[in-house]
Design goal:
Layout lengths: L1 H17 L3 H28 L5 H9 L3 H8 L6 H7 L4 H7 L7 H6 L12 H13 L46 E7 L6 H10 L5 E4 L5 H12 L3 E4 L6 H4 L3 H19 L5 E2 L14 H10 L3 E2 L4 E2 L9 H13 L3 E7 L5 H16 L3 E2 L17
Parallel strand pairs: 1-2, 1-7, 1-8, 2-3, 4-5, 6-7
Helix pairs in contact: 1-2, 3-4, 4-8, 5-8, 10-12, 14-15
The structure holds zinc ion.
The site of zinc ion has 5 residues, from loops.
């Protein structure tokens, strides 16, 4: 604060020494005296009201849209910290933080240069820290482990809603698909098999994660392969235990029985229950014409997401060759920005494995990234005919 006083006296002295005529000197002296007195008045005012004296200068910031910068220091006293966090909504936090820069804009610096800011005024950056951290530490914001809530059961609905009461997953919001993001989801059905390890090695070599819709049996080798798929970071989806179309599509109860059996096998091998699945033969096939709608409704009610495909390698079709597998996969995938590719992982699918490196290389070369499915990925589902 002494700076104001010093400047005023120094200015007066200087101008006095310049004056050659008395009249001119008198005018200058009067002006200098006025400045000195005014400066002193400002100083006194500043000392009197502490931080608030600087506010008129900072208030200019309010018109620039960063009024939080002003209010935060004022409310940064310990006893007020709760008020700050309750007044500041979380969505505003990034904006107010970003707008901590405006104090450096020309308008602000001309109104209150850094030397004019009283030392008791905390710098803008540090003043933001306290309210921000108080928001971060707000116990209301801390995430608590949630107990999964079972889906509601329709009292007038079918009895199968009551079977396997623990067989459900919390619904997951689907991420919107970005059409500029060329993504390929490789899926391998019917495994694990003696080729699973080779598939895993190739995927590792190309740094690719994929999805395995498994129909594993309850033997040690299958369990070890399931565990290895999970250990390498791929998604394990369920593809039923028997994979027997006539059995699983006979009724909703039959499907649930089969699903529950495979679900336990996956859990025993990996320690995690699957959250996604694929219908054998796809969701629309000639065996589930009477039951597809009811099975889909029941599985959806339980929170499960099922995935069909929009690219077929054709590796399970009669007459498939290495060439056809490569050609069909690559040409169909290139026609999509989001490709869910159907392949198979059985002992007989050596041709698929042989083409996998070429398929990965070609699609990567064309700008595709590869990813694994999870319930947040919006599914591709065949339209189910009315039943
Ligand atoms: Zn299958």
């Amino acid at each position: 604060m002494a700076k104001y006083r010093k400047r005023g006296y120094r200015g007066a002295k200087h101008r006095k020494s310049q004056g050659k005529k008395f009249q001119y000197a008198a005018i200058v002296s009067a002006a200098a005296l006025f400045l000195a007195v005014t400066g002193f008045a400002i100083t006194a005012t500043s000392d009197g009201i502490e931080n608030f004296s600087i506010l008129p200068a900072y208030r200019m910031g309010g018109t620039l849209g960063y009024e939080e910068v002003i209010t935060l220091p004022i409310f940064s006293a310990d006893e007020k910290s709760e008020d700050v966090s309750s007044e500041l909504s979380i969505p505003e936090k990034p904006d107010s933080t970003d707008s901590s820069q405006p104090p450096k804009t020309p308008e602000t610096s001309s109104a209150a240069s850094s030397s004019d800011i009283p030392e008791s005024q905390p710098p803008a950056e540090s003043s933001l820290e306290q309210p921000t951290s108080s928001i971060m530490e707000d116990p209301k914001q801390a995430s608590e482990p949630e107990t999964p809530v079972p889906p509601p059961i329709d009292p007038n609905g079918p009895d199968y809603q009551k079977s396997y009461p623990d067989m459900f997953v919390p619904p997951v919001e689907k991420k919107p698909f970005d059409s500029n993001d060329k993504v390929c989801y490789l899926t391998f059905d019917d495994g694990p098999s003696k080729l699973t390890d080779q598939i895993l090695d190739i995927l590792d070599e190309y740094g690719v994660k994929a999805t395995f819709f498994v129909a594993a049996k309850d033997d040690e080798t299958s369990k070890q392969r399931l565990a290895e798929i999970a250990r390498r970071g791929h998604t394990i989806g369920l593809h039923t235990y028997t994979h027997d179309y006539r059995k699983i599509y006979a009724s909703v109860d039959a499907f649930l029985d089969d699903f529950a059996k495979e679900r336990e096998i996956i859990y025993n091998a990996t320690g995690e229950y699957p959250t996604i699945f694929r219908f054998p033969g796809g969701s629309v096939n000639s065996y589930n014409k009477k039951t597809a709608r009811a099975i889909i409704d029941e599985m959806t009610r339980r929170g499960y997401t099922y995935y069909d495909w929009n690219v077929s390698s054709g590796d399970a079709e009669y007459g498939a060759t290495r060439e056809s597998i490569y050609r069909d996969t690559v040409s169909q995938a290139k026609a999509c920005t989001k490709a869910i590719v159907l392949c198979h992982d059985t002992n007989a699918k050596g041709d698929t494995v042989s083409q996998l490196p070429s398929i990965l290389w070609e699609l990567k070369r064309n700008g595709y990234r590869f990813d694994k499915l999870d319930p947040s990925v919006a599914p591709i589902n065949f339209p189910v005919p009315k039943q």
